[in-house]
Amino acid sequence: MVKWVALTLLILLLGPVGCAVLANGVVREHWSRTFWGSAGLLPDPRADREALVQVWAARTWGWKGAFAVHSWIVLKEEGADAYERYEVVGWGVSRGLPAVRRNMREPDAYWAGNPPELVGERRGPRAAEAIPKIRKAIADYPWADRYLTWPGPNSNTFVAWVLRQVPELGIALPPTAIGKDFMGLRLLAPTPSGTGYQLSLMGLAGVALAAEEGFELNLLGLVLGFDPNALALKLPGIGRLALRAHDTSSSSPALDNSAPSS
What predicted TM-score, i.e. pTM, was given to this entire model? Predict the structure, then answer.
């Protein structure tokens, strides 16, 4: 019985990952020559005066993009004339640069040629109330001088940390956000959406059950699961296969097939 369960899990893990690798193809261009400009998805902030909180994700560069996305946070204060983008990257950390960066790219920029996708957003008074708490969470991020692609702490660890500190946002990260389950030595914590709980062993193994995330099983950072809200399967590499759309303005995203880990 144990052997059949192990074989089933192996097929579920390697099958989708293999498909994702084939779908991504061979990288033909160095990351420095890929497109990093705006996708043109956000309006002029001066034309939209309400407060805004958004979480974005895009497939990572190279072979890592078959498995994972890079995620970041965008803020706009009520009446502000510009967006702010916060994320974690590994470039330069070994030379003493901070992992947390502000406005390194356009708020809705491509990531190494991969298009950004909106994971979730909050607008108006709800966003305005959350922004000071988000700023504090960013300042308190415990791995601000560290970066490790796998199992974390990485870009997805950072966004998950911030979301856990501001649970009223109720935003769930996609299953391809490898590193979101890294919690250091902490074993039990709320899920990023704040609508349930997860058990995680350094992001390498764990389980989560929440209203927004649904059920997730983490094996070596790869997530298998089911989201009843969107009637969606969660598969490693592929992300979510959903039968029903999910509104990003009120809950977790319907599209999770997003981009490079930092």
Answer: 0.88
